[in-house]
């Protein structure tokens, strides 16, 4: 069993920054791709960003490219999401996930390939 625990969410003004963290336990963290999804109120869950097992490759949703950066520290079993230039439309619950490989996150339906989900952390961006 794998546990993913997110933290770092909160309330921020538009244009501000937040860094989300996700600590994984229960499996060999460094073997798997990690990613973030989000779900805004009244909307479907959507892919945000993902990173491969060693941090060498990343994949982003078009809506966050140039503003968000995903990274990982395998020694700490932690994946991060640095969010800059935040917009009100970034308001959502952000979920940490694992998948067998990075390319699954680029699939037409990436959620089908997710092995584990965290419980989420709420990010609220005020205008």
Descriptive overview:
It is a single chain. The chain is 0% helix and 48% strand. It has no helices and eleven strands. The model has no long low-confidence stretch (mean pLDDT 95). With 127 residues, it is mainly β. Strands 2, 4, 5, 6, 9, 10 and 11 form a seven-stranded mixed beta sheet that branches. A hairpin with a 4-residue loop joins strand 7 and strand 8 (78-83).
Fraction in helix: under 10%
Strand content: over 45%
List the uncertain runs. Answer: none
Major sheet attributes: 7 strands, mixed
Number of strands: 11
Number of helices: 0
End-to-end CA span: 40 Å
Radius of gyration: 13 Å
Order of helices and strands: EEEEEEEEEEE
Which term fits the overall shape? globular
Classification by helices and strands: mainly beta
- Mean pLDDT comes to 95
Short description:
With 127 residues, the chain is mostly beta strands. It has strands at 3-7, 10-13, 18-25, 33-39, 46-51, 58-60, 68-73, 78-83, 92-99, 116-117, 121-126. The mean pLDDT is 95.
Structural key phrases:
mainly beta, 127 residues, seven-stranded mixed sheet, four-stranded antiparallel sheet, 0% helix
List the helices and strands and how they pair.
Layout: E1 3-7, E2 10-13, E3 18-25, E4 33-39, E5 46-51, E6 58-60, E7 68-73, E8 78-83, E9 92-99, E10 116-117, E11 121-126
């Amino acid at each position: 069993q794998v546990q993913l625990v997110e933290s770092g969410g909160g309330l921020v003004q538009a244009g501000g920054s937040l860094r989300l963290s996700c600590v994984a336990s229960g499996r060999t963290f460094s073997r798997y791709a990690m990613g973030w999804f989000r779900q805004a109120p009244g909307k479907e869950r959507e892919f945000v960003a993902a990173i491969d097992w060693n941090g060498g490759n990343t994949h982003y949703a078009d809506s966050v490219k140039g503003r968000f950066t995903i990274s990982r520290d395998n020694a700490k079993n932690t994946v991060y999401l640095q969010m800059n230039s935040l917009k009100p439309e970034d308001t959502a619950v952000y979920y940490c996930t694992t998948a067998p490989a990075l390319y699954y996150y680029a699939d037409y339906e990436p959620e089908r390939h997710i092995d584990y989900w965290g419980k989420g952390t709420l990010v609220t961006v005020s205008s």
